[in-house]
Design a protein that fits this description.
Elements: H1 7-26, H2 30-38, H3 42-69, H4 72-92, H5 96-124, H6 130-159, H7 162-181, H8 192-196, H9 215-241, H10 249-266, H11 268-272, H12 276-296, H13 300-327, H14 334-363, H15 365-394
Helix pairs in contact: 1-5, 1-6, 1-7, 2-3, 3-5, 3-14, 4-5, 4-7, 5-14, 6-10, 6-13, 9-13, 9-14, 9-15, 10-13, 12-13, 12-15, 13-14, 14-15
Length: 398
């Protein structure tokens, strides 16, 4: 069996950890920074921070195109350099308007970099271990999400210095860029750059930006992104208003991260055996139980148990769906496949934020979370009735 943990794969995973560590280092404290430094109101804070997500979403289809059309190492290095440099922009932004511009533009290289780095990870994996490798690759995201916010809050509690956090994020992102710079794609037999010359260039069409062959997988992923969008954005306020909890949000996300990590480790064998549809089904059913338990048992047990279950479920479901999408793409479409699954998740997240807020405003937060359980159930039903067969009949055999 070919070696999974090769040198280049470890480097790409390390760079991905640095990418998300730098991102999550600032995420929990930016609202506080905007409030204390610029006196921004809650509405303005939401507006400022939402620009990052919107720009990332807009850039992802084009990043998939660039990753598939130009040398991937070059695209990766340019995207990572831009992502790192923008952290210096936060230090230079002296007004709220300047900060808003920097934060909004920063979403562009972030969206492109997540596509480029994960596509390079696929390239450096041996084909026989690719499914398993993509599953483990996500561990670097999950570890960063589990560690970085807690680390940032600790640093701020000790120093009350936001500039120090910006410098740390800049240093960590620069470290990730330096690690990616040492990745060698030339030694990969099926390097896309090498194969691109033997593949007839495709005409510029929608399929260069969105993998049309996998459209139903994307639609299905929107349902699951919707659920996590509502959960991640309205969890804290639901806990406070419905459960009377003033804290606990950090613990919830920590337990969710633990679930994600455990499922990635446990699901590796199934992915190695190519049981993608099994992993996806198992994950979405576990998530459905978690979302339902969260709203059906409005107490401490339901609150914290749901975190672990949702983490376990998403940790099984996400790499399975990503592998399924990639299995429906040719060599020179891997970037597009990656961006497609990320776009679908982002669209679902965005719809969840908008719909969750509207439902909560008119019917209350309990109604919003019952809607989450219902939408997740619809996504599960769609998968078993249509998506599973859709994938099995359209995947490309290597």
């Amino acid at each position: 069996m070919e070696r999974l943990w090769n040198r280049n794969y470890i480097k790409v995973m390390t760079a991905n950890f640095a990418l998300f560590f730098a991102f999550y280092l600032l995420t929990p404290l930016l609202p506080l920074y905007l409030s204390e430094t610029f006196g921004a109101t809650k509405d303005v804070i939401g507006l400022v921070l939402s620009g990052y997500t919107i720009t990332a979403l807009l850039c992802r289809p084009f990043s998939g195109y660039f990753v598939d059309s130009f040398p991937r190492k070059t695209v990766l290095m340019v995207c990572y350099a831009a992502f790192a440099i923008f952290f210096a922009g936060y230090l230079a932004a002296s007004t709220l308007l300047l900060f808003t511009i920097v934060r909004t533009l920063h979403g562009g290289p972030f969206g492109a970099l997540t596509v480029a780095n994960s596509t390079v990870a696929i390239d450096v994996l041996p084909s026989s271990r690719r499914n398993e490798g993509i599953g483990y690759y996500g561990l670097s995201n999950n570890l960063a999400m589990a560690i970085a916010p807690t680390f940032a809050i600790f640093i701020y509690a000790q120093t009350h210095n936001f500039e120090l956090l910006f410098w740390l994020a800049l240093a960590i992102a620069t470290f990730g860029w330096m690690v990616d710079a040492t990745v060698d794609l030339r030694s990969k037999k099926d390097d896309v750059r090498g194969q691109a010359s033997t593949i007839k260039p495709r005409k510029l069409s929608l399929d260069r930006f969105f993998l049309e062959r996998g459209w139903l997988l994307g639609v299905n992923m929107v349902f699951f992104g919707f659920c996590f969008g509502v959960m991640s954005n309205y969890l804290a306020i639901y806990g406070k208003q419905v459960l009377g909890m003033t804290g606990g949000t950090g613990t919830w996300f920590m337990l969710c991260s633990i679930g994600l990590i455990l499922s990635r480790l446990q699901g590796g064998k199934a992915l190695r055996q190519g049981r993608l549809t099994h992993n996806a089904a198992e994950g979405m059913v576990i998530s459905l139980v978690g979302y339902t338990l969260f709203v059906a048992a409005p107490n401490m047990f339901g609150y914290y148990s749901s975190a672990l279950l949702i983490g376990l479920g998403n940790g099984h479901m996400w790499p399975a769906f990503q592998n399924m999408m990639i299995s429906m793409a040719h060599h020179n479409e891997r970037g597009t496949a990656n961006s497609t699954i990320l776009i679908s998740w982002d669209i679902g997240m965005g719809l969840g934020v908008l719909a969750g807020g509207a439902i909560a405003e008119h019917f209350g937060y309990s109604a919003a979370f019952w809607t989450v359980a219902l939408v997740n159930a619809i996504g599960v039903i769609l998968y078993f009735l249509k998506t599973q067969t859709f994938f099995l009949t359209r995947r490309i055999e290597e």
